[in-house]
Design brief:
Structural class: alpha+beta
CATH topology: OB fold (Dihydrolipoamide Acetyltransferase, E2P)
Order of helices and strands: HEEEEEH
Radius of gyration: 17 Å
CATH class: Mainly Beta
Helix content: 25-40%
Strand order of the largest sheet: 3-2-1-4-5
Distance between the termini: 50 Å
């Protein structure tokens, strides 16, 4: 069974099937001139180079994106904020870790 069909089957069983669950999610890694470098969530070694003008104007590095109906991308605000809070918490934990010598 393909990965997409497995995911579809799992989501059906969970009764939370959404078309967006089958769409790839990307993280904005960086901007290079008028291009944006996106990393595929789950396989961050896979990069995608897109024109910056297909992204929302407010898009910034670290934002999570999914493709939109118009061929562009939309920011996943809740998921982006959650990921930023997790990263902040990890950084704080590292800062507050006692030095081991």
């Amino acid at each position: 069974m393909s990965a997409i069909l497995e995911k579809l089957h799992w989501k059906k069983c969970d009764r939370k099937l959404h078309w967006g669950d089958l769409m790839p999610t990307y993280t904005i890694d960086r901007f290079e001139g008028n291009k944006a470098v996106l990393l595929l969530k789950g396989n961050e070694a896979e990069e995608k180079l897109v024109d910056r003008n297909v992204l929302p104007e407010s898009a910034k590095e670290g934002d999570l994106l999914e493709t939109s109906d118009n061929g562009g991308y939309r920011i996943l605000h809740k998921e982006t904020e959650k990921r930023r809070q997790q990263a902040k918490a990890k950084l704080e934990a590292l800062k507050n870790r006692p030095n081991s010598k």
